[in-house]
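Our consortium's second objective concerns turning raw sequence data into structural hypotheses that experimental partners can test. To show how far this objective has progressed, the report includes one record in full. It was chosen at random from the queue rather than selected for favorable results. The single chain below, 240 residues long, was entered without modification.
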Amino acid sequence: MPTNSRVILVTGASGALGSSLVSYLAARGARVVAVDRPQAGQRLSDVARESVGVLPIEIGTSSIETWSAVIERITADLGPPSGAVLVAGGYRGGKQLVDGDGDGESNLRAMFETNVESAGVALSAVLAPMVKNQRGSVVLIGSRSAVRPWEAVGSAAYAASKAAVIALAQAAAQEVLKDGVRVNVVLPSTLDTGANRANMPNADRSRWVSLESMCDVISFLLSDASRDVSGAALPVYGRA
């Protein structure tokens, strides 16, 4: 789907979904800003080199001050972002809340910091120029487990954090609706990534969601074709 050379920011750009999105969007004419942590710097550079016109940016801390500087740089180099996909996040699972000595509490804190706080700070930062320009679309990444938490045995903290991401996105969507800015969240089931294949070697991968399919859905939400869609929590379940 054409992106009309818009400036689109992708966080978590060195990961499986993030790097696929960078390549997908750049191939369709977008000027992509690929953002990730310094620890992923080498992979981020590789991702940027693999596509034309990608600007890689390392961001060390998730704070409004740091993000404000990043937005200023993007605006100066490419123009204000009109689209953003906040992919950055993490997963911890394999242990029930009742198990362990304090592990449940630390997992909960870690998941909310990684998935909710980081998304909230980035969302606030990218919305500011969009509201100013009265135009923009932001997509956040939730999870099917957020709306089907009974399926998240062993990963309650993760499911809770992704449910909070949905609430964050939908509340923000209403706040900026009058400003011509849209915020949506996608809810994938299992993505067909190398890591998931390694962790679940006996699973039926035909039921998983391909990265290309996810990119198609996200591209639609970024585009003017979805101009009347905001505040949606869109299931992307494949055949699961």
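The partners drew two points from this record. The mean pLDDT is 92. Strands lie at 7-11, 31-36, 55-58, 83-86, 136-141, 181-188, 233-236. Both points have been shared with the crystallography group to help prioritize constructs.
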